[in-house]
Design goal:
Helix content: 55-70%
Distance between the termini: 31 Å
Structural class: mainly alpha
Mean pLDDT: 88
Shape: elongated
Order of helices and strands: HHHHH
């Protein structure tokens, strides 16, 4: 079954992020000039903020991966509930569908089949091999033919 891995991106502490934090904290102090000293005391340091952001980033990434995995499991359960023939045809159609290999698109594809918008005999797209993003895979070039 066509599947696209979820890319992982670690949190990066950059000079631009630190500069933006300094500007934000300065705006907070400038908003209430009479209390600027008290506000400055209460503001966390750059290192503490960046560490908190890195921890929050990692937690959010884990939640996003868990939600995506739940969506894949749900779509596969939905597919497994169909007859063997329907499963085989729908899996083949999914592998050749022009949609990204994403669980949300698979759910929509299965829903379209369930409500009758698409049928096993008449798919709304040309069944050609696709990559995980949904782009057509080029046919292997035959020897001796010029490139197009």
């Amino acid at each position: 079954m066509r599947f696209k891995r979820w890319a992982r991106h670690p949190f990066t502490d950059t000079p631009r992020k630190r500069s933006a934090l300094r500007r934000k904290q300065q705006r907070e102090r400038d908003a209430l000039t009479l209390f600027a000293a008290e506000i400055a005391e209460a503001q966390p340091g750059e290192d503490a903020v960046m560490e908190a952001r890195a921890v929050a980033w990692a937690k959010q990434e884990a939640r996003d991966r868990d939600r995506r995995a739940q969506n894949w499991r749900s779509a596969r359960r939905r597919l497994a509930a169909l007859s063997h023939n329907e499963q085989a045809v729908l899996r083949q159609a999914w592998n050749r569908a022009p949609y990204p290999a994403d669980p949300v698109y698979l759910h929509d594809f299965l829903h379209a089949y369930a409500v009758g918008r698409i049928t096993l005999a008449a798919l709304p797209f040309a069944p050609v091999p696709r990559d995980p993003i949904g782009r057509r895979l080029s046919e292997p070039e035959k020897q001796g033919e010029p490139h197009a």
